[in-house]
Structures are given as structure tokens and as C-alpha cells.
Sequence to fold (94 residues):
Amino acid sequence: MAMPTAARTGFRLTMLCMAAVLAGGAAHSMTSVKGDSEDRVLSVTAAQQLFADAPDGVDHMVTGPVSSAFRERQREAGCADAVWPNVPLACFPG
Fold:
């Protein structure tokens, strides 16, 4: 059973509009990212590189049992006052 001509035309018009919207969105995304990507790459800290899968940050204050040497290393690095993403790697165990 074939669709009526008006229904086919309406369907084609709908698909064309959807394709235009998607193409426009993709073009907008590409141009907005292209302009500031260099700044973003240069501003990545060592902690962000280490925990790339956690874009919202990682809690750098370890609450479990650790050695006194690690606690001293945290104190010397200023971990208690560090704010993501500017957290020294010495604040993380390992």
C-alpha cells in the first residue's frame, strides 16, 4: 500500500528539516570548539591529565589509612588549601 503523495512530501520535508538542523548544529559545534581549543589544551594541569576521566575533579584529600610520610608530603605540598584543578600530584597517593 503506497503512501499518498501529500504524506510523502510532508515526510520528505520533515526529514530535510531535521538534516538541516543537525548539520547546522554540527557546524556550530565545530566552529565554537576550534577557536578556543588551544587555550584549553595549554591550561590542562597535571592532575587533570592524571584523572582525565573525571572532568569535575577528584577529591585529593585521602580519608583512609596512609603512612605518616604521605601525610607529611601532603602537608609540604599544601594539599589542604589546593583547589581543583590546581592540585599538586604529591597530594594523591601512589
Q: What stands out?
A: Residues 67 and 92 are 13 Å apart (CA to CA). DSSP finds three helices and no strands in the chain. The helical segments are 5-42, 46-50, 68-77.
